[in-house]
Design brief:
The chain is 33% helix and 21% strand. The protein has twelve helices and 15 strands.
Amino acid sequence: MKPRVAIIGRPNVGKSTLFNRLVGKRVALVDDRPGVTRDRREGEAELIGLKFTAIDTAGFEDDDAATLPGRMRAQTQAAVDVADVALFVVDARAGVVPLDAEIGRWLRESTTPVILIANKAEGRSGESGILDAWSLGLGEPVAISAEHGDGMVDLFNELLPLIEKAPARSADAESPPPEGEDLEDEERPAGPLKLAIVGRPNAGKSTLVNKMLGEQRLITGPEAGITRDSIAVEWEWNGQAVRLIDTAGLRRKSKVEDKLEKLSAADTQRAIDFAEVVVLLLDATRGLEAQDLRIADKIFEEGRAMLIVLNKWDVAEDQSKLFNGVRAALDEGFSQVRGVPLLTVSAATGKGLDTMLKVAFETRDAWSRRVTTGQLNRWFERAVEANPPPAPGGKRIKLRYATQTATRPPGFVIFGTRVDQLPESYRRYLINGLRRDLDFGAVPVRLTLRSSKNPFA
């Protein structure tokens, strides 16, 4: 495993901007207001050929441990504990403030080597702040501009000797390996299962991920909308690799006015785009709502395999009636794919998690399946024979053969004549038959109809 470098500091000093600069992508949400980052995020970083794992952390605040800022601080402290180097970022334009001094005192007591960074040092406005940073007792500050990329060579010179001294880490170290930020690699079915957890705010997504990991990796609490970034964490279940992706809660689009919430929603959409299986988590105490169906429709449109999971099942009342009611509402309100797996879990107790993961792997297998042309056309002939296409205006529609053109999601093309006149009901008949007879289950299936080319045209 690569050395780990934690980026810490008080809110709004540019930690996430520096993280994005080091990983070479705009993956951490950035905004002018303080306190945007809450959970710690990891990514593969490279600085002038020096490779390491960067850890973005929440702004360090002096609040009670039971409050949300206090829980965020605990995550920052955990990041420093597992890091080989800490980058302590201060704002050169604002100068050293009392909270910076408090963080400095804490870091001087830590065994983790510290590099002091004076960010936003471009121009003359940062000169006094750079001089002021000497008072923190952490040596000479490295003046940089994370936004413009200034000072990266100086940062490299400070990082290199500390990273070279870092002890080698084995893959089974106490902290999980980095997420790598390579969600785009969607053509690798043998890799880790990319499992995104989505749903409305306060459905228990972060609590569910923490229960699976067996540690308080993500910040949780009674406040709705704690998670802002989509956070990916590598994990293993029964010897099988899983990349868990926790996401921000999705509210109705008409209710989202805040810029930061819009950024979080876009980040969640990106997580859906590059996941393999998406768990739509519902709050069992609230049942199925219209927003849940909207989210399910987004997942289906993107062609992702999906599980619908009722959380907080341990406190749900009249469970049998609730389960049957949700199942009926799904079949009626989400008729595009009937029979989507509906499961129950308790993120608080862990009950049902093994079943959920087993079904997730099975669903990915179906989503990635490819059938032979012979098997497909034998099914196709039987389907057409059992229910021939209609003959609008007395002219028959001839369907000749089928072929599978894609997987993940499965895609098929059927060739024939006058296929533009084939009614949508017959198209649904073919898709439902594909799912049922060829073991594709409830995954999205793409079906395209094409006219056979006339060789004499």
